[in-house]
Fold:
Amino acid sequence: MERLCAAVITDLEEAITSDIDSYHGKYTYIYRLVENADKRLSLLFDGHSRSRAPLQLTLFRSEGLVENDELEGMSDELLNATKPDH
Structure:
């Protein structure tokens, strides 16, 4: 979760310093960034269950939120099934 939040904060910092002409335009853009980030957080972290674990691990991996060394000890079958390009 910390990695995703850090990425969102980076996106927000870029939005705040962007060249968007109006405050309303900047606000709308930032609002959408937060709204999308909230949906991503919910999809990734809400409702953990054994049946959803492969999907959530695939999403973690596709978002770059898990390091290879953190996957050590998992079966080759699970790792292959959760590759982001799979």
